[in-house]
Amino acid sequence: MRHKWLWRFLRRRDFKRFEATLEALRDRDIPFDEVTYNFAMYGILLHPRQVDELSREVLQDMEEDGRFHPALLRLQRGFLDSFFELKEVDAAPNRKNLLKACHGSTGQ
User: Fold this and answer.
1) pTM of the full predicted structure?
2) Whole-number Å distance between alpha carbons of 5 and 90
3) Which three-class secondary structure state does DSSP give residue 65?
4) Rounded distance, CA 92 to CA 70, Å?
5) 7 is in which domain, residue-wise?
6) Residue 79: CA atoms inside 13 Å, Cβ hemisphere, count?
7) Are 68 and 34 in contact (CB under 8 A)?
């Protein structure tokens, strides 16, 4: 159920509720699964007032969690590396394409 709301808040650009939902999960000590981590990473990239580099910290947390397959971690690292390479040359994906990538990577 939490994934449904995270997705809705991202689509609507309701970052206040999106962040509140993630914070509520942390406060309740609910461990993040791969979908929640993906939403957190994409949420940072989509938020206009967030520092994109924070998405690398979310990936680092995911790696330190130790519950995820190395192929999934490589996939996410590759995506973030590509995103930042494109951003360096002012060719980062637009919001609509990032939402499509998020939707595809989370299976929503």
Assistant:
1) 0.86
2) 31
3) helix
4) 26
5) 2-106
6) 20
7) yes
Residue 1: band (very low, low, confident or very high) from pLDDT cuts 50, 70, 90: low
pLDDT tens for residues 43-101?
999 998 889 999 999 999 999 999 999 999 999 999 999 999 999 998 888 888 888 88
Number of domains in the chain: 1
For 90, half-sphere exposure in the C-beta direction (CA atoms, 13 angstrom radius) is: 0
Mark out the alpha helices in 13-69 (DSSP H runs): 15-27, 34-46, 54-65
Contacts 24+ apart (CB under 8 A), 9-12: 10/39, 10/42, 10/43, 10/46, 10/99, 10/102, 11/99
Q: Is the pLDDT of residue 107 over 90?
A: no
